[in-house]
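Dear H.,

Thanks for agreeing to be a second pair of eyes. The structure we're designing against is below in token form, covering all 354 positions.
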């Protein structure tokens, strides 16, 4: 039996509910691969902020560092500005542990009503590689003449060759393992002639090393349109931090719901902490009602199992989710059913290992 030390930050809103269900499923799946988990809960988030004036303990990054992985629910509260909550907890985690690769799959499962109803199940199967440490999220900038009519704000994007190359290379490496072997790169190099052009140049250089891969480069506005018009044509997609963020909410709804969108923040250095969290946020509009779909958190937990090299456990979670969706009897409200969060989690946990 192998034991893994997992840090857990449930965070805010529905983050708490969906993380609980993910842990329930992990408890059931671990045994499939002779693994068990020891959970270290950290009470950080906006409630902690109300009490302590900060989102997490001062040394929170050091406290997280020794774990085998981090499971995170979501962060964000309607009464606190998002840049305070997110820059106080989530975003520094991605930077400190150099979680340069944000992996976000979008897969159209049998039993899920995509708004693009004519698309057959499994015809959409894309994997977005989102650059996760720099670009538009570099957190560099400043304010001048604040609180006056001359108020000026500068928010700088930072693109480095190293940063572009490692995410683009990771996308090509993954594409080599997938049957369709395609990579689409998303930029805005018609308007942004520095960073995005460095990205395009790097993409072309890496692509030249992978002649077996079919490539296309799309501008972000066109890409948004093509995600709806021809979602089935995309295989691996690689994009900058902000464009990857936007496109993965879009991809989520194309395959049915935010409630299905999983995400992994993978540290480039294996010894560093990787983090697994759904794409969605704390959903204040449905928080506290027990109706959030936990499948995005559960599928993110399955990505954690893959990362921990527990492939049979991961496959058992995927199979259980597929079964639940295809059965169609216990769907949560965002997928057209009436099942409550915990009922969905219970059912997936029961199906694991069947
Ligand atoms: P959101 O993802 O929280 O919600 C968007 C919409 O999708 C809402 O209508 C919500 O009800 C629905 N939805 C999301 N997840 C769902 C689920 N599991 N089941 C059913 N429906 C679901 O996005 P938002 O409203 O823009 O953001 C709310 C807060 O969350 C903000 O404070 C934002 O900054 C934060 N946020 C945090 C993270 C994170 O911590 N990783 C990610 C995104 C947004
Ligand atoms: C996500 C979220 C975060 C991001 C926010 C909450 C800062 O939207 O993980 O997709 O933009 O990265
Ligand atoms: Mn997002």
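And this is the sequence the design step returned. I haven't edited it by hand at all.
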């Amino acid at each position: 039996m192998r034991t893994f030390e997992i840090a857990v930050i449930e965070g805010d809103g529905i983050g708490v509910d969906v993380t609980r269900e993910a842990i329930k499923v992990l408890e059931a799946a671990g045994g499939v691969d002779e693994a068990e988990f020891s959970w270290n809960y950290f009470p950080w988030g906006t409630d902690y902020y109300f009490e302590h004036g900060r989102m997490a303990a001062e040394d929170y990054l050091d406290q997280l560092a020794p774990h085998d992985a981090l499971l995170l629910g979501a962060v964000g509260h309607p009464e606190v500005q998002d840049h305070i909550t997110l820059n106080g907890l989530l975003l520094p985690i991605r930077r400190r542990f150099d979680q340069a690769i944000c992996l976000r799959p979008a897969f159209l499962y049998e039993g899920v009503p995509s708004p693009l109803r004519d698309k057959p199940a499994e015809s959409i199967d894309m994997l977005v590689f989102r650059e996760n440490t720099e670009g538009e999220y570099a957190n560099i900038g400043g304010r001048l003449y604040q609180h006056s009519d001359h108020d000026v704000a500068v928010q700088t994007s930072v693109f480095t060759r190293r940063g572009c190359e490692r995410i683009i290379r990771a996308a090509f490496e993954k594409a080599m393992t997938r049957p369709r072997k395609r990579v689409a790169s998303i930029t805005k190099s018609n308007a942004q002639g520095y960073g995005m052009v460095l990205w395009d140049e790097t993409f072309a250089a890496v692509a030249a090393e992978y002649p077996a891969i079919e490539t296309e480069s799309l501008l972000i506005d066109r890409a948004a349109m093509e995600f709806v018009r021809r979602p089935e044509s995309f295989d691996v997609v690689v994009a900058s931090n902000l464009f990857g963020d936007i496109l993965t909410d879009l991809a989520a709804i194309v395959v049915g719901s935010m409630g299905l969108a999983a995400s992994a923040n993978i540290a480039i250095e294996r010894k560093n902490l990787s983090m697994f969290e759904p794409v969605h946020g704390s959903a204040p509009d449905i928080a506290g009602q027990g109706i959030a779909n936990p499948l995005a958190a559960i599928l993110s937990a399955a990505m954690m199992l893959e990362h921990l090299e527990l492939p049979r456990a991961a496959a058992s979670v995927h199979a259980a989710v597929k079964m639940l969706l295809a059965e169609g009897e216990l769907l949560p409200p965002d997928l057209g059913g009436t099942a409550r969060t915990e009922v969905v989690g219970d059912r997936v946990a029961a199906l694991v290992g069947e």
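Two observations from my side: Residues 86, 91, 245, 279, 281 surround 3-isopropylmalic acid (ligand 2) (CB under 6 Å). The chain has a mean pLDDT of 97.

Warmly,
E.
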